[in-house]
Amino acid sequence: MQKKALNQGLLEYLQQSPSPFHATVNMATILANSGFSELNEADAWRLKPGKYFVTRNQSSIIAFVLGKENPAETGIRMSGAHTDSPCLKVKPRPETFSHGYLQLGVEVYGGVLLNPWYDRDLSLAGRVTYQAKNKKIHNLLINFVQPMAVIPSLAIHLDREANKSRTINPQKDIPPVLMQSDKNQTFDALLKKQIKKEHPNINAQKILGYELSFYDTNPASVIGMKDEFITGARLDNLLSCYVGIQSLKNADPSVSSLVVCNDHEEVGSASAAGAGGPFLKAVLQRIIPDSEERHRAIAKSLLVSTDNAHGIHPNYPG
Prior knowledge:
By secondary structure, this protein is of the alpha+beta class.
């Protein structure tokens, strides 16, 4: 893939992936369109040399090429990345009303720089769990897309020390403002309205839960006088997810290769879908069921962690 096409594909992927759930489903779509077969952890796997992927929690994905040569002899070429990024997540029962404004309580997820969230055009995306009319429970991805919230700064003449010693209380200083409203407005009602807008054929009788995060609607861009920089949210670490998947698409089919993109890295990875959980181990056990063969393959394998690293910041070279 040419550099310009790769960069353009990355920009589109970043824009379409405002949450780990969207990042994962978009990777799955790329893989399916490239000849990879989807596996289900609840099904029996009957693998032969070929291309496969499997997801867990709708937010983590493992894709692999099972090579024609025995992995016990060649090892497995692996790279790991993560689908989550620092953000502001909506709390349960988040509605707060202040002087005629509806705001949503948020929790800080991961190591967030809070100041850049002020005065941004924010939207909301993630997963909603709902009960249908037939009482069955389903998960659904939503993305408001359009700007629908803001965290306004306090005017400088009311906060003269803002540029010198300002501190941010994440509980009271950053709840995003959604609308002017009385106290009868509920967040669940807004979610049902959005579900009906995005999925007209779905009738969500009751909202049971959600994992939703705010994101800046300003799109990722190629910038610089020589087009040498890429700016945008979620580069840590959707950049590595995207590049890993693109590399796997062009991997040598004779040798086994694998890309794992885990959720929850920003908060420790200790979950069923996280890098500290059993997802990768479980998949490797099913790729190579014989323990002796598997141990031989692992001994000859290499797993490269492709998280983002820090370069030189010209304003802070020290």
